[in-house]
Write a structure and sequence with these properties.
The protein contains 26 helices and 21 strands. It has about 700 residues and is of the alpha+beta class. Strands 18-3-20-19 form a four-stranded antiparallel β-sheet, with helices on both faces. Strands 14-5-16-15 form a four-stranded antiparallel β-sheet. It has five domains: about 1-185, no CATH class; about 205-225 and about 565-660, Roll (Chitinase A, domain 3); about 250-260 and about 465-560; about 265-345, no CATH class; about 350-445, Roll (Chitinase A, domain 3), CATH 3.10.50.
Length: about 700
């Protein structure tokens, strides 16, 4: 029954998923035809995948259902904007995968039969998700009877609608995973590594070389010493055009009118904190007073003298409980500091714990229940270390019987620290944190020293309503006098204002530096070039936190290749690097005529450097850095051979192999297995991506979110 209760706990968080389709007209007012109150399918089309239309109500219903599952699994009742974005993206990826791969599975005759589903739910090969839900925490065994009991409740209608919805979600996830695994297995079984390939790989891995080298960095030649004309840059652009592919995007230019605190705001904040000093000094319940009146909550932390700033340390350790110090200006805030308590406390603790994650057992309630069960077992004589090895999900300490060793204050999360430092040695305590539920046992405590707990009344220096109104008036004046893109540009140039530029995609969620700026991105995709952007209320002033923003659409970039003039500055740098490389190669060829690495270094006026154990699979060369051209050259060289100049990422190199170390790995079958496993791993991703790229996908989500 405990397992069934976990299911009820999870599903009980689900609310009835009701989508009022009649309200869609109000939600989607911006895409409706004003002369027609009926919603046409094309107006509600959020996507089209391989000719199949995806309608907004269907998509949104799936989003809401997934959101309820998210709430249940996370234990949250509210979802923030970032989580909503992730949920919508998850649902979108599921839609795309099902649409893209559905026909592929059908053509191959792949399916998940009822017998397979039975086997994964209650047969011989129970799926890990089902095991997690129906495992008895005390025995570690799957309770098959509980599975059957729950399924009977689903089939008989005695389970709640929420429980049924959760079960159908789990069942669908299991089926999708199984059919995807079948497809991946088909692909991987068709991949083969030949003996010749395995032998070649072993030869590459077995050869390690030690080298000496000299190098001349590109920056050793000044930019002014190299001539680059437009013909050179155009030729480079044409040759490397594939590097300048771009997705469809839009460019915006914008001004930020930032609201910052004024001297008057600073003075008002100081006056507030000074006026509160007498009241703060006379209050008895410091924690409640601080939590109600301060911009920073009360910190239940005892500090040693060495941990405090010098001015506070002197006050805190020479005063008595109730004394108040300040005001102090710190981190854009004024604060008063009051001595709340003085105690002799240990400065360090040795403890052990068992961590239980709610997602493993189904909920926080389930994790707390398991912690209480383990606590009772240990109090009756069970071994803490043994149970930690069995149940703790902190792998580092679980392997040591839960032992965390010695730690000082402020090294652990607060609930854990309070239990460890304030609890009695060898007593058991249960605490919760963002990591889960902890069963904690302090085992030793360090020497007690004098420590002080301070109550801090903090008031941040923030812009007042008056300041907001003043800055808004400035933005409003600019907006009213510059209603076109041309006027926008002229005024910026005239006043020497700081214009910012951003390139945005239709589905981007925000502009860097502007929190929650999705509305401005949507506005950019509803405007024409040189239009001043307009928000949902018809205003040209966008408000993001402490910023008022006015923007114009500067350009529209279609999918394809970035225009030469847009990437010209980047191309110039690349051509400069190429020409510097050619000049350095010529210089090094002349020096290489000396025939010896030391003589080459002498002629170039540089030192000989060394790097060891270079092999073909090496990503970064010791001393040199990421230089694949150097790696590819030296592993194919003979001992004492001097290389030709090598153009790399950071400069030009001449190398000499001074030692070759041949390893003796001759296990061809093991290498074949390794290579085939790597192929299969890549194929799992690349096979789907190939189908996805071949699909015709019209994504219109940006019109709705």
């Amino acid at each position: 029954m405990a397992t069934l209760q976990r299911i009820r706990n999870r599903a009980g968080v689900l609310v009835a998923i009701i989508i009022g389709l009649a309200l869609v007209a109000f939600i989607l007012g911006d895409i409706l035809n004003a002369s027609n109150s009926l919603l046409r399918p094309n107006q509600l089309k959020i996507a089209e995948i391989n000719g199949e239309s995806v309608q907004y109500p269907d998509f949104q219903k799936r989003v809401e259902e997934t959101a309820e599952i998210y709430k249940m699994n996370s234990g949250q009742t509210q979802i923030n904007d970032n989580a909503w974005t992730q949920i919508r993206e998850q649902v979108w990826q599921e839609y795309v995968r099902q649409a893209v791969m559905g026909n592929v599975y059908e053509d191959l005759g792949l399916a998940v039969t009822g017998d397979e589903l039975f086997d994964m739910v209650q047969g011989s090969n129970i799926h890990p998700v089902i095991q997690q839900l129906f495992t008895n925490p005390n025995t570690g065994q799957v309770e098959r009877a509980a599975v059957l009991q729950f399924l009977r409740a689903i089939n008989s209608g005695t389970a709640t609608a929420q429980q049924k919805a959760y079960w159908l979600y789990i069942e669908n996830q299991i089926k999708q995973e199984r059919i995807q695994t079948k497809y991946n297995n088909l692909i991987s079984k068709g991949l083969y590594t030949t003996t010749s390939e395995a032998n070649a790989s072993l030869i590459e891995k077995n050869k390690n070389v030690n080298i000496e080298f000299v190098s001349l960095p590109y920056e050793s030649i000044s930019d002014s010493a190299v001539s680059v004309n437009e013909k050179d840059m155009q030729a480079y652009y044409n040759e490397h055009k594939e590097n300048y592919k771009q997705d469809a995007s839009r460019s915006i230019e914008y001004l930020i009118f930032q609201v910052t605190a004024t001297e008057e705001d600073d003075a008002n904040t100081l006056k507030w904190i000074e006026d509160a000093k007498d009241e703060f000094a006379g209050i008895q319940d410091n924690q409640q007073y601080v939590n109600v009146n301060s911009d920073v909550r009360f910190q239940n932390v005892y500090e040693k003298k060495d941990n405090l700033p010098e001015n506070l340390a002197e006050f805190a350790f020479s005063g008595k409980v109730g004394d108040v110090f300040g005001p102090i200006k710190e981190n854009n805030a004024y604060k008063l500091v009051k001595i709340d308590d003085i105690k002799d406390l240990p400065d360090s603790v040795e403890a052990r714990h068992i961590l239980i994650k709610p997602e493993t057992v189904g909920s926080y309630d389930g994790a707390l229940a398991l912690a209480d069960s383990l606590k009772n077992l240990i109090e009756k004589g069970a071994s803490f270390a043994t149970l930690a090895g069995q149940y703790s999900e902190d792998p580092g300490s679980a392997a040591k019987g839960g032992d965390l060793g010695w730690f000082k204050r402020n090294q652990m999360v607060k609930p854990f620290e309070e239990a460890a430092f304030n609890g009695d040695v060898n007593k058991l305590y249960v605490a919760t944190s963002q990591f889960g539920v902890h069963l904690i046992q302090p085992t030793h405590k360090g020497k007690e020293v004098k420590q002080v707990r301070l109550a801090e009344l903090v008031r941040n220096i923030e812009p007042s309503t008056k300041t907001f109104q003043t800055v808004y008036a400035q933005a409003s004046k600019f907006a009213s006098e510059n209603t076109t893109g041309a006027a926008f540009d002229e005024e910026i140039t005239k006043e020497g204002l700081n214009k910012r530029v951003a390139r945005i995609g239709e589905n981007d969620r925000q502009i860097v530096g502007l929190d929650q700026s999705r509305s401005m991105i949507r506005a950019a995709y509803q405007a024409d070039v040189n239009d001043i952007l307009v928000n949902n209320e018809g205003s040209t002033i966008f408000e993001f936190a402490d910023n008022f923003v006015i923007a114009k659409l500067a350009g529209i970039q279609d999918e394809g290749y970035t225009a030469f003039n847009e990437v010209q500055p980047m191309i110039k740098l690349a051509v400069l690097k190429e020409k510097k490389g050619e000049a350095l190669v010529a210089k090094m060829k002349e020096a290489a005529a000396a025939g010896d690495i030391d003589a080459v270094a002498s002629k170039l006026g540089v030192d000989v450097q060394a790097a060891n154990n270079i092999h073909f699979d090496l990503y970064s060369v010791p001393v040199i850095g990421v230089e694949p051209a150097v790696v590819g050259t030296v592993v194919s060289m003979e001992k004492d051979q001097l290389s030709a100049p090598i153009k790399g990422n950071r400069g030009v190199y001449i190398t000499k192999v001074v030692g070759i170390n041949e390893l003796n790995n001759t296990n061809v079958e093991a290498e074949k297995a390794r290579l085939e496993q790597a192929l299969a791993y890549r194929a799992n991703y690349q096979a789907y991506e190939a189908h996805r790229k071949a699909a015709e996908i019209e994504d219109r989500r940006a019109k709705f979110y």
